[in-house]
Amino acid sequence: MSLTLTTADWLALFTHFMSLSLLSIGGAITTAPDMHRYLVTQQGWLSDAQFSSSIALAQAAPGPNVLFVALMGWNVGVNAGGGVTAGARAWGFGLMGVLVAMIGIMLPSTTLTYAAARWGHQNRELRAVRAFKQGMAPIVIALLMATGWVLGKGQGDAARDWPLWLLALCTALVIWRLRVHMLWLLGAGALLGWMGWV
Amino acid sequence: MTSPSRSTPRPRSLAELFWAFTWLALQGFGGVLAVVQIELVERRQWLTREEFIEDWAVAQIMPGPNVVNLSMMIGDRYFGLRGALTALAGMLLFPLLIVLALAALLAGVADAPQIQGALRGMGAVAAGLIAATGLKLMAALKRNVMGWVMCYGLIAATFVAIAWLRWPLAWVLLGLGTLACLWAYRRLGVLASGDSDE
């Protein structure tokens, strides 16, 4: 895939990601549907395959999931630089895409969070701040359990996905009750998947 | 709330902060949160369980990637803005390089069934890890001002709303979150005005 991006296009990409940043409550992944609409459908800067492989790869690699945004920026840049076969020029554009996308998605939300967290910490003895923290504690805990549940359920096809679900459940119990390093469990999960057993 | 005599381990330098976050980000396959809890609360003990939940509540309701918000807040706590930026860099720099290298290398083979299977298996383990984090943190609710009945009721309601009914996160946080915070606010007032209950 090869295309041409003007300075105005780069700026549009940057401001679009800045606006999504402020909407990304619950993580950048919640804005993925809108990124698809903008990058793939409206602008045609990314192919469908590039979009979904960006998300899958970032999920599998170590690190925060937000890095899927960096991969999208990379792919847009490589496309703008003439595609993977164009060599150094494509790599340069790819790195520019990474910077534009990551700074766009991070700057507004981190600035806002930084200010809010500072204020909260300075006023931590206020009754309202304490009430917020005490009140949110059980909800936050439940959200973690629910996230594990939703991710562990797979695609929702119970007949086919039950081994996956069982693997997630066993992992949860083992980590909760025993002292096992999670890298062992991740390795076991990868092996079971490689063999086609889950 | 937490006893003032607690001898708190803390990062001694920006470099230690940077490498701590780099190390935990690199262990986070399919998400970093479970690793943050294990590394920072259980192993290094820079945070108590209670502090972790409080910070996580803020990181969760602000826009932006949750673990990135959390790392920034923790860095800020120890070294101010420099700490926030250092933690942010630690969380993102090496994972970003790795994910870009993977994208460049794996361009052709990511569709092989074994690779897909391994990714699926690791995904299930990652889901179990997140759920286990929630289970472990339940112990921190013992000292919550709302009392255990309210806490477990809120956990059940939030879990059902998110995991089974799949309500939007914003509604759940606004609805149940407001209810919980108001109840906690009232309880804090009752506790402050006299020790008639308990």
Tell me about this structure.
The complex is a heterodimer of chains A (198) and B (198). The radius of gyration of chain A is 21 Å and the shape is flat. Chain A is built from eight helices and no strands. Chain A has helices at residues 7-23, 32-42, 48-60, 67-80, 88-122, 127-152, 158-177, 182-194. Chain A has two domains: 7-116, no CATH class; 153-194, no CATH class. In chain A, helix 1 (7-23) packs parallel to helix 5, helix 3 (48-60) runs antiparallel to helix 4 (67-80) and helix 4 packs antiparallel against helix 5 (88-122). Chain A is mostly helical. Chain B is mainly α. Chain B folds into two domains: 9-103 and 115-142, no CATH class; 144-198, no CATH class. Helix content of chain B is 73%, strand content 0%. Chain B has helices spanning 14-27, 33-43, 49-61, 66-105, 113-137, 148-164, 169-193. In chain B, helix 3 (49-61) packs across helix 4. Chain B starts with 13 loop residues before the first helix and ends in a 5-residue tail after the last helix. Classes of the chains: A mainly alpha (198), B mainly alpha (198).
Give a short synopsis of this structure.
Chain A is an all-alpha fold. Chain A has eight helices and no strands. Chain B has helices at 14-27, 33-43, 49-61, 66-105, 113-137, 148-164, 169-193.
